[in-house]
What we know:
Blueprint: E1 5-10, E2 13-17, E3 28-32, E4 35-38, E5 40-42, H1 44-47, E6 53-59, E7 74-82, E8 84-89, E9 92-97, E10 101-104, E11 110-114, E12 120-128, H2 138-141
Amino acid sequence: MKEIKTIKSGKNYSAITVGKMDELNEHVLQMGEGMVTHGKVFVGDALGATGSQMSFQSMPVGADSPFLHAHKTHEELYIIVKGEGEYQVDGEIFPIAEGSVVRVAPDGKRALRNTGKEPLVMICVQYKANSFGKDDDAMTDGIILQESLKW
């Protein structure tokens, strides 16, 4: 079984690795009594993330989600890194492929499946819905520092 490894951490950062994307299937996630998912790993705790959860997942050819699911408070972003498939939200089905990004509100009943000829690799980011307001623009939150880079 593959494990998350820490690269480096400090007061204001943490860096980890889940390994190569084509080796994600070596991760095993225990999801409850008798329910095991291969190829999925959550990284939020390992990173010490305080505002989101994130997972990496590789879905084998022909595989699909074992169940529909929704969330109590979390919105999700699914970022398709490799492969192709279909995504289902509230009974609507649409194609997804490398480069697709799908946002699903907490109440959205969701699932996906791999319809391609290679593993479907994705990153899923979970965060509390409606937690960003009009003053949370990414372009105005950033601060350009007048310090030299130390490459």
